[in-house]
Design goal:
The chain is an alpha+beta fold. The chain has helices at residues 16-35, 49-59, 70-80, 103-111, 142-149, 178-187, 210-213, 217-237, 246-263, 272-289, and strands at residues 38-43, 63-67, 94-99, 115-117, 129-131, 134-135, 154-157, 160-163, 167-170, 192-194, 197-202, 207-209. Strand 7 (154-157) and strand 8 (160-163) form a beta hairpin. Helix 1 (16-35) crosses helix 3 (70-80) and helix 5 (142-149) packs across helix 6. 17% of the residues are buried.
Length: 299
């Protein structure tokens, strides 16, 4: 008769220590989540250990970083009754980060510490990968054929390989082929970002997703400057005085009042130059219309 192995029954005595450890992890993490001002979910997929340790060290003193099985992370959120909307983002290797930083501040802090990585065959292109036009450091030789095999418009010029024009080598969502990966590595192009990806952050009021937080700061500054200029022009044209436009509105009003006064012949210190200028111009026009005396030719 076959005997059951000791501890083989799920929920038996052998499972109790492990279960107690898990319960303790859930309880401790739940308590931390309750106290935290900001809770975030970070994706750890394909993150090298070296990069993970680097970012963890950088976050020390600014945020608390917890990695665990997804089941523990999910149960801790349930136990804390806080950040329930973040659960949908825990789908792969994940971590919970707890901090006092503002959502965008934390997102940028993590993003700025991510690095670049070379493309590997079989990886999916996150965006269109384009080899830019210009000189390379590669000497003429087998590399030329390798670049051309990847559909890169390469040619020899001045003893070096040049890319004649921008050459797309992978479209978004496309698998990177062996040929393309090798060509990109030859050129030193690292199209992939290696590091943590902040998927979502809960500040107690709103959920900030990656798409919302991933801001192009230079473009944002340009957009703000353009919007400010447009708002200023609109307020001036609408004659709506504010602290920012009052000087411009008054200057415009003074110029308009001066023109109206000069046109009406109202003499003042401000209008006199315009009135005299207009009188001289009118005199010149009238003189040009007078007929020349008999026997004289008008020049």
């Amino acid at each position: 008769m076959a005997r059951k192995k000791k501890g083989a029954v799920k929920g038996g005595a052998a499972d109790r220590p492990a279960l107690a450890v898990k319960k303790k992890q859930v309880s401790e993490l739940a308590a931390k989540i309750k106290k935290a001002k900001v809770v975030g979910i970070i994706q750890l997929k394909e993150l090298p250990d070296k990069q993970l340790q680097k970012i963890r060290n950088a976050l020390r003193g600014k945020a608390e970083f917890t990695t665990a099985k997804n089941s523990i992370l999910l149960r801790a959120i349930d136990a804390a009754k806080k950040g329930e909307s973040l659960k949908q983002y825990i789908t792969g290797p994940s971590a919970i980060v707890l901090t006092e930083m503002q959502p965008y501040e934390m997102f940028k802090f993590v993003k700025d510490r991510n690095g670049k990585a070379a493309a590997k065959p079989g990886q999916i292109a996150p965006f269109e990968i384009i080899v830019p036009e210009g000189e390379t450091t590669l000497p003429p030789g087998p590399a030329l054929s390798e670049l051309k095999a990847a559909k890169i418009n390469a040619q020899i010029k001045a003893g070096k390989i040049w890319v004649a024009r921008d050459s797309p080598v992978a479209k978004p969502g496309e698998k990177i082929s062996d040929v393309v990966a090798k060509a990109l590595q030859k050129l030193g192009i690292e199209p992939f970002e290696v590091g943590m990806k902040v998927l979502a952050i809960d500040d107690g009021q709103f959920i900030f997703t990656f798409d919302v937080l991933n801001i192009d700061e230079s473009q944002l500054r340009e957009d703000f400057a353009m919007s400010l200029n447009q708002a200023l022009n609109f307020s001036i044209n609408a004659h709506y005085p504010t602290e920012q436009n009052i000087v411009l509105i008054l200057s415009q009003a003074v110029r308009l009042a001066g023109k109206m006064a000069a046109g009406a012949g109202v003499v003042s210190e401000e209008t006199l130059p315009d009135i005299l200028t207009a009188a001289v111009k009118l005199g010149e026009e009238v003189g040009a219309l007078e007929p020349a005396p008999a026997g004289e030719k008008k020049e």
